[in-house]
Structure formats: C-alpha cells, structure tokens
Amino acid sequence: MGRKAKPLQEQVDLLIRRGMRVDDPERARQLLLEIGWFRMSMYWFPFETRYPDNMSDVHRFREGVSFRDALLLYAFDFNMRNALLKPLERIETAFRTYMIHLVSTRYPDSPAWFCDKRVVGPRQANSFERMVYLPLKRQNPHIQLHHRRFPADRFAPAWKTLEFVTLGMMCNLYESLCSSGLRNDVARHFGIHQEGIFRDYMEVIRALRNICAHGNVLYSYRPPQLRRGPAFEGRQAPPQNLYGALGVVEHFLKIISPRLLEEFRKQTEGYIREFAVTASTRHVLGRISGLKIRN
Asked: What's the rounded Cα separation, in Å, for the pair 204 and 263?
C-alpha cells in the first residue's frame, strides 16, 4: 500500500490491478478493515510472483490467485496458533517442573540454586539477581509475600521463583548448569539422549510459543538448524519448516501426554482439510509449510 494509507476501496482496487481475483469486493473491504492490509499482506505474499524476494518492488499475483486463497491461509494460521497453545503450555510446564525438581533435590542445601555458582555458570549467577530476580521482587505478589514471611531470605526458593520466569530464561538456566550430568538427565527425561538435540528442540518450542502468544506468522516458520533425533527417526534429514517444528511438538507430547498428542494430530488434520481447499492454498501449505496435503 506504499507509504500513504489508502481508503478500503482503493486497497481492493490495488489488489485487482496487481492480478488478484476478488469475487466479493464488499466482503474483502470488511476483512481488510477487520484484519488490516499489512497483516493480510503476509498471507498473500507467497501467492505473488516475486516470492520469496520480499525486497522486490514488483507486486504481481500468480495467475488465478484469489483473495479467498490468502484468507484461507490466514484462517489456517490463526487456528493452528490457537491449537498449539495448549500443547506448548503442557510442554513448557513439564520442562519447568522437572528441571526445578531435579536440580532442587540434587542440591537440597541450595534452594536458590539459580544464583549459586556451584550450580550455574558465574555469568548466569551474577546476572540473574539484577536482571530477573529484583524485578520479580518489586512486581510479583507471590515473591513479595515470601519476603514478608521470611525477611532474612535473599531469594525465594527455586520452586517459587522459577514459576514466574520466561521459558527463554528456563532454557538459559538449563544451558548454564555446570553439571553435564544434570543437563543430560533433563534431556533423557524427555526421551532425548543428546544434549545438543534437546537444546535444538527446546529452541523450537520457545520460538513456536512466542509466535503463537504474539500472533505472528506461523505457516512460514523455519526452525534453526534441526538435527536428526527422536522426532525424526527414519528420516534422512529433519525438514526445516513448520512440518519439522510440529514433529518436535509431537515428540514431546508422546512423552508427556499421548492423549493430547492424539487430540493435537486430529486438530491439525482437521484444519488442513478445512482450509487447504484451493489448489493455491494447498500448494503454499505443502511447499512452504511442508505439510502433507491429500488431494
């Protein structure tokens, strides 16, 4: 739409001039007002002839592309983000809980092990209090209550404090554990026998959680380099796309909750059937997302 905002009808006219078929202009205007040009542009981009060159100024749609194609891709993305929130929360909670339990029971005399240089690296230990704990102490009522009850404590124990830190911080704590045995014990608990692969998988979980929590684009997500592991047994190389990322989610669910795994697979298959109903949308979800599309 350039550097100046355009009225809705001009937005629709611009799409038509660029080669998009708009069967119901009034409905398109309503949706552009509801969703917005910029957000929708992320979903019609893969239908443009310039894809994947997002620096090109040439905006032309492939022959036969319709506004409905982009809307179906948007609807798939919206529903998949919501479907992922439940399993991602279960995975995060399981990781957080097991790691807190394992390290706290391995170091029973260090309830605030997240700042103990015998347990975590000195850089992590030094930065945690200033960057994480002091803001929690100022803002979190549960941590404040602990300090009112136990005024001599410098920190609340890990099983309280670490309930309120981000998944990214939990991953940082995992990586900073001084004991490789502890890191391997955490990984093996989730069916992974190489610490590096576990870190790769957790990076995928963290990235997916951020995408889903903040409404970012999901269909084109490309994980950091995934290495072969238990989520990809029997495959020569893990697919570096949404399909590969969903394989990581399914691996964790297989360990944590087979019932939820089955529920999630049915939801995913249902959304593919519901929204991959045009040739253009099937092509995008198959080629870019790597999903298995049945014609």
From this structure: 20
Q: Say which residue the tokens 């990809």 belong to.
A: 232
**Interval 66-84 mean pLDDT:** 98
**CA–CA distance, 139 with 137 (Å, rounded to integer):** 6
Q: Are residues 241 and 221 in contact, defined by beta-carbon separation less than 8 angstroms?
A: yes
Confidence of residue 115 (pLDDT cuts 50, 70, 90): very high
* Mean confidence (pLDDT) of the chain: 95
Q: How confident is the model at residue 166 (pLDDT cuts 50, 70, 90)?
A: very high
Q: What angle do CA 220, 224, 229 make, to 5 degrees?
A: 110
Q: What is the dihedral of CA 49, 283, 213, 188, to 10 degrees?
A: -130
3-state secondary structure of 177: strand
Taking the complete model, does pTM exceed 0.85, yes or no? yes
Contacts for 206 with CB less than 8 Å, ≥ 6 apart = 167, 168, 171
- Rounded CA separation 45/52 (Å): 8
Answer yes or no: are the C-beta atoms of 104 and 157 closer than 8 Å.
yes
| Closest listed residue to residue 1, CA positions, set 51, 40, 27 | 40
Name the nearest CA neighbour of 213 among 166, 174, 180: 166
What span, in angstroms and rounded, lies between the C-alpha atoms of 128 and 112? 11
